[in-house]
Amino acid sequence: MKHYTIIFFLSVLTFCPPVTVKAQTYTQNKAPLKPVPFLRLPYGAVEATGWLRQQLELQKSGLTGNAEWLYKELGSNSAWLGGNENKSDWERPVYYVKGLLGLAFTLKDEKLISKTQKWIEWTLNSQQENGQFGPGSNDDWWPRMVVLYYLRDYYEITNDQRVIPFLLNYFRYQLQKIDGQPLLYWAKARAGDNIDVIFWLYNRTGAAWLLDLSEKLKQQSFQWTSIFNKNLFVEKGGDSHNVNVAQARKFSPVWFQYTWSDTDRVAYANAEYHLQYEHGRIDGMYSGTEPLSGRLSRQGIELCGVVEQMLSDEIAISILGDAIIADHLEKITFNALPACLSPDITQLQYYQTPNQAISNNGSRNFYKDNYRNGIMPGPHSGYPCCNFNFHMGWPYFVKHMWMATADGGLAAIAYGPNNVTAYVADSQQINIKSKTNYPFHDEIEMTVTLTGDPVIFPMQLRIPQWCKNPVVTINGKFMSDIKPGSFYIVNREWKNGDRINLKFPMEIVVSRWVNNTAGVERGPLVYSLKIEEEWKRFKDYEAPFHEYEVYPGSKWNYALDIDLSKNINSQLVFSYKPSDQNPFNPVTSPVSISVKAKPVNSWGTFYTDKGRDTAATMPEEPPASPVQMNNIRTETISLIPYGAGHLRLAYLPVTGKGFLLEAENCTQINKAVIRDTVTVSGGKYLLFNEANSGVVSSTVVVPEEGYYDLAVHYASIQNSKLTGNIIVLLQIANEEYLFHALPGKMNGNFLTTRKKIFLRKGAHAISLLNKGIPFAVDFISADKISNP
What we know:
This protein is α+β, with helices and mostly antiparallel strands. It is built from 17 helices and 42 strands. A 7-stranded antiparallel β-sheet has the order 4-10-11-12-17-14-15. Strands 18, 19, 20, 23, 24, 25 and 28 form a 7-stranded antiparallel β-sheet that branches. Strands 30, 32, 33, 35, 40 and 42 form a 6-stranded antiparallel β-sheet that branches. A hairpin with a 2-residue loop joins strand 19 and strand 20. Helix 7 runs antiparallel to helix 8, helix 7 runs parallel beside helix 10 and helix 10 runs parallel beside helix 14. The longest helix has 21 residues. It starts with a strand and ends with a strand.
């Protein structure tokens, strides 16, 4: 087992025995656990600077720093401080402490550290002789799993000698009790967190019985590896709650350390594939309101799900070493996380949606769990879990921007302005300062500072998969063989003052979403329509922590007037203005994209709360693309980062060149039934119940000869399971094309299957036949594209 020494000197305010800060170690897995490529650094090793530190400071002056008087569960009468405040003996206080600790020690802020310490002291002093700890009024395993995480974090920072015996005593208690007191729902879903800390403790003590406990927990938990690999989220024995899924994503990588099994290793990537295909969102997350809820533009994701997915990515990359996981981490961190927070982090939003043109009080007609203030910014938005749990998001991201490597080096996992102080090779201290405005700018300058002699060690630099032409220079010398989606390893003698320059040129790309709409992305950032926002106070709390409704002060129903067969980067104009102001503010964001667009006056809103409040509306699902708008005037609109605005339109129709055939408008229909629903294009779709049913013939007009992206927008019928066999035979221009569906249960969610084909100009007959199980078709589209 390798150890690399790290020392942190922190001023820690304590209540009980003073904390002795001693040398820490980067500890590799002990046999039989599989060695990991990256070793996580403790809080404080990475210091945020620039815009990134600004987010932490805003948390301090905003919701995190004021949480203990905002929320009664966190007051002096909290059950996790020995009191009896209602609903304070379960997850809410421990969620908060997990994030508070990270913020306190990342900022090295003595007042926040003092706040943290009182919670730590009560917990450590609450342990009974049998090993149990925490409030006596609640013996659920689940909230204690949260405590395990922040006690681990606390020990890695302070080396408090009380923590290891405390954890050993608790896990002995858990081993003795777990058969008679098995895991219940939340603990069954989230037991990977428990096992993660067990393995951490095993590596420091060698106590073999800890592995026995991990096996018992594995047996009692949801069988996540099977769920991930086989796409069983909505099947019997599965779980589709968005936070459970996000938190459980780490389960298979964690367990892979014990089994060394490829089945566990590949489960992370397989889960991502299934989730993105069926429920994926442009911000990198998957919808969940609260269960997984398809790809519609108006379905949300819970803030808890965002921060838990971030942590799962951070844990998974340390174990699997896959650079693409860090790409995903950056995408949700830079888009989904700030989209759930007000610019000054004095309000949060329980759900956020890709197309959110209004944010007012009322039921949103979500997939399952509706909260009247669920998309309203305020300190009490939605169910009271996210307002306690979100605090860990930014601090954990900063913590995991760098990791130690198994061979005594350092790895740059995620980018942004920061300083890292760590130990390499034979315990030599090194500091690397990253000066950058990434992800708003594409250049990063790193400067190496040594406290001793030159030292040889490997540095691993993550090269984003989205970057086609990355550039790495060291002291002005250009490096070669740099591959996107990997870690570029530089093993050399490093000297004081060495400089590393990274340039990741960012191209604008258009991705396709519900109803064949367009999403605009550049590097790790997603862009959405800038909408003027009118904030109206809805409920008064003590300033500035009020609750608001947000209404649009400008038009939002636009279609992008772009030609997908031509260079996108010449049609969308990127602008960057360096600024030290908050980048996640619609007024001060340093980046924007301007693009031609046409207003779609027929695209409006629909009532989501007819029974109680007809003012509660959301945008209709966007019109299917391509839309024909030849006689509509063109305007120039502005797109800003997804996380910079509270209101946004991220999925926009496209004019383009091609054709759109609504299935219900076909001229001849055989053995098919027209059905109505507000969630599809045009409000209608065709249901094909019988084999060989379908559109026997219709006519489409191809405007120009060339290559087209031909797509069938389909769904399985309720409760039917797609097999992956041929479901559609499409005949066009005397050619036949077979379309396949992804195996899995769709429960009515409309998905897309695509092919790139060559078509000649003119009118063509088209037929669509069902060759497999019963299914539905919304529409068939074709967009002219550049030659593939």
